[in-house]
Amino acid sequence: MATAVALAGTLLLASCGGSDSGGSDGKTLKLWHYEGPDSAMGVAWKEAIKEFEAKHPGVKVKFEEKGFEQIQKTAPMVLNSNDAPDIMEYNKGNATAGALSKQGLLTDLTAEATKRGWDKEISGGVRTISQYDADGVMGSGKWYGVPNYAEYTMVFYNKDLFKKYGVAEPTTLDELTAAMDKFVAKGITPLANAGAEYMAQQYLYQLALSKADRSWVDKYELYKGKTDFHDAAWTYAAETFADWVKKGYISKKSTGTKAEDAGVSFIQGKSPILFSGSWWYGRFQTENKFAWDTFLWPGSNLTLGSGGNLWVVPKAAKNKELAYDFIDITMSKKIQNLLGNKGGVPVAADPAAITDPQSKSLIAHFNALSGKDGLAFYPDWPVAGFYDVLVSETQKLITGSEKPDAYLSALQKAYDKGLPKT
């Protein structure tokens, strides 16, 4: 693994080239992000680049598309070099943006957020991920990132398959369970799942959230009290998830499946239900050839979600003023409205400008969640390296090689080991 990371770092550095690694000429904005070109963010940011270049004659945006995993693994090394970009998209949370801010690798954006009014446009659970204290813990302190969209998880379902098999569209958890039983009886695995990546752990975390409240989330994510993985919420989640595998709602073969595979199985009409994030929405609007809809996880006041990934400005960036201007353009009504109509969740759009009916529904659900303080972040955020632990341990739960009690003990051990020393 260490060799692979080192190699990825070498490739990433090589791909940047060293030609402009001297001082700033003020004529190039080096930008990295990892959103697909057809996603709502990819479309909106492409337009933002055009707008930026129109407003900055003689300045060119040097955009380089990176992979999520690539940036995740190599950012500390690259940001400590002369090849750092001027602005880049980076994952939010204590274990990622928080860790980089603590290492002194990110620019403090507090003054710009105040001057340009970003602090007025970004509030609540979205704002939480923008600010980090001296220990890299989100929720307070200086601004180190700006999210210009939000995200949350929901249940996507194939209305045509529900109709074909005479399954009622569910409004409660009992009805969802009954629907899954019907699909299993027809020989269909109801839930698309990806055990090799984030999706499986997000199913499990959502089950826990359905038995939790805000103080539970604050203990787990923000260290405001002790987290007990053998409490009622976590125990219910692990036992229910294992039971769902036994009942055939989740395939035992999904341990090696990636998120892309799960998404494609939904797009191809093979899986009737997918629980995942709003980042799929724009793609499903484009690629799904069947009637589909969404609903929030039934019987839960909380669901996974937050502000989107962050625009961060590396400490070593050579064109910081240009980077601030670019962030400002992505926060403009024009780009925010475009993002909203392409299936994203904008943070500062004009509601009247969102005309697409499905996009209106997406944003309405988000506003309902946000209004009741329902965004509960993500399970891998609290401590560095926890994502990999959750993947490997949840895979064991899927195969049945680990029982729920042992699974929860393994999570407790990894979580406690990674907690900041106070």
Automatic annotation (TrEMBL):
Q: What is this protein called?
A: Sugar ABC transporter substrate-binding protein
Q: What PANTHER family does UniProt report for this protein, alphabetically?
A: ARABINOSE-BINDING PROTEIN-RELATED, BLR3389 PROTEIN
InterPro entries in alphabetical order? Bact_solute-bd_prot1, SBP
